[in-house]
Write a structure and sequence with these properties.
- The protein has about 240 residues and is α+β, with helices and mostly antiparallel strands.
- α3 runs antiparallel to α7.
- A hairpin with a 6-residue loop joins β2 and β3.
- It has 7 helices and 9 strands; from the N terminus they run βββαββααββββαααα.
- It has 2 domains: about 70 residues, Phosphorylase Kinase, domain 1 (2-Layer Sandwich), CATH 3.30.200; about 150 residues, Transferase(Phosphotransferase), domain 1 (Orthogonal Bundle).
- The radius of gyration is 18 Å and the shape is globular.
- The model has no long low-confidence stretch (mean pLDDT about 95).
């Protein structure tokens, strides 16, 4: 069914079911299955949806243990891909409704869940390509899930480092409530990061994880996870 705007809604889906909008697609809650169906605005933009479907299918075929923090994939239809519903929406939406900083146990738990999913993705030869708080989703039980692979591609060393650096920025946003260098154009932010000119982390929680992500000290998410787990042990007094 097409809306007055010409958007090709899948059967049984209307504007009131829409949960989120992206650059080239919509995510709507199917009222019957309670799954998210993600579909393109226009048929000519279906390539992004097809790419994401292929990434999910590739991850489903993996022989490696699948972390629970990867958004579940339920297959696809002619209209789009079927995904797990995260009741609280994106992490950014959740943060916008909260007062920073997040409690440290929650922050570390979500950081661990995100890093586990991203490590699994990289281990399968895929880079996420767009790691930020809009690509992390929060369930009703307040677990974090990683999704949205519209910009993913085969992993390269540079791509892995970029995902890790972007993970540091997502962690920074969770701690402070805002992105690094808010208000600056994206190309200026990228220039500053290339020159190792990072935001001041003096009073920022988990700066011992954020800074190494930005500075390129980690070569994989295995190192990130090791430091997150060390912070968790310290928090628990072990």
């Amino acid at each position: 069914m097409a809306s007055p705007s010409g958007i090709p809604f899948p059967p049984g889906i209307s504007m009131q079911d829409v949960q989120g909008l992206g650059q080239s697609g919509m995510a709507a809650l199917d009222p019957t299955t309670k799954h998210i169906i993600k579909f393109p605005f226009k048929d000519e933009e279906r390539a992004n949806c097809n790419r994401e479907r292929e990434i999910y299918q590739r991850l489903e075929r993996s022989s490696l243990p699948r972390p629970s923090s990867l958004l579940k994939f339920y297959g696809s239809t002619d209209h789009g891909i079927l995904l797990e519903y995260a009741e609280h929406g994106t992490l950014r939406r959740y943060l916008n409704g909260s007062t920073p900083p997040l409690p440290l146990p929650t922050l570390l738990s979500w950081a661990k869940q995100a890093a586990e999913a991203l490590q699994f993705i990289h281990a399968n030869g895929i880079m996420h390509g767009d790691v930020d708080c809009r690509k992390f989703f929060i369930t009703e039980c307040l677990d974090l899930k990683v999704g949205d692979f519209t910009r993913s591609s085969d992993a390269t060393p540079e791509g892995v480092r970029a995902d890790i650096s972007d993970f540091g920025s997502a962690l920074y946003e969770q701690v402070t409530g805002y992105l690094p260098y808010p208000g600056l154009p994206q190309d200026e932010k990228e220039r500053m990061f290339r020159q190792m000119e990072f935001p001041d982390l003096t009073t920022v929680e988990v700066k011992g994880i954020i800074f190494p992500c930005w500075a390129g000290h980690y070569t994989s998410f295995a190192g990130v996870l090791e430091d997150i787990e060390q912070h968790i042990r310290a928090l628990l007094g072990r």
